[in-house]
Amino acid sequence: MADALTLSPALARPEWLIRPGLLPYPEAVAFMEERAEAIATGRADEMVWLVEHPPIYTAGTSARDEDLLDARFPVFKTGRGGQFTYHGPGQRVGYVMLDLKRRTDPKKGPDVRKYVHDLEEWLIRTLARFNVKGERREGRVGIWVVRGKREDKIAALGVRVRRWVTFHGVSFNVDPDLSHFAGIVPCGITQYGVTSLHDLGILVSMADVDVAMKAAFEEVFGPLTR
Question: What pLDDT digit, counting tens, does each position of 33-62 carry?
Fold first, then answer.
């Protein structure tokens, strides 16, 4: 298990919510902004929110115009870190809203780098439940799968922190249309591809993935409310 975070006694368990259907991206951002502010001011509990989006491209704070190759879907500029990424049906997006001030070693203070490492660990442990070895790569954001002589990305990360409350989060390819990634240079990386559980021959449902994600999250970050 990853090193346990020191939690404030007043910290309630994060809420775990799965949103059915395809959620328009602007609605997701508006909700996260509001919830993160409420968490920062003590008016709401932390939250992990699992959603799916209609096909879109999002541009992080480091996105380069030349990496948008074909704007076949709506493009949204967003305040998360990172470059261009794709969201769409068959991809599980996990928006994570945690208070890092209360999830920290009091001697060290909030640690965003450790938080990102823990998000990666969450994805790696989720994949392990399907007997897939997900790996980190120095200088490459996301989680990668080795396939013979090639490496493909199966999950991406992009976070934002405001008043030490996190939002945005991760995206995990279950069974998206992988051809949709061709409209961008995913995360600015040209020499590697993308994959999904179904592309790897693991024909699980989104509900199966949600169960695995919840169990892995609790291992890394601690228990959830439901």
Answer: 999 999 999 999 999 999 999 999 998 888
User: SS3 letters for the chain?
Assistant: CCCCCCECCCCCCCEEEEEEEECCHHHHHHHHHHHHHHHHCCCCCCEEEEEECCCEEEECCCCCHHHECCCCCCEEECCCCCCEEEECCCEEEEEEECECCCECCCCCCCCHHHHHHHHHHHHHHHHHCCCCCCEEECCEEEEEEEECCEEEEEEEEEEEEECCEEEEEEEEECCCCHHHHHHECHHHCCCCEECCCCCCCCCCCHHHHHHHHHHHHHHHHCCCCC
Catalytic residue of the set 187, 194, 216, 220: 187
94 is catalytic: no
Each residue's pLDDT tens digit, 154-195: 999 999 999 999 999 999 999 999 999 999 887 656 668 899
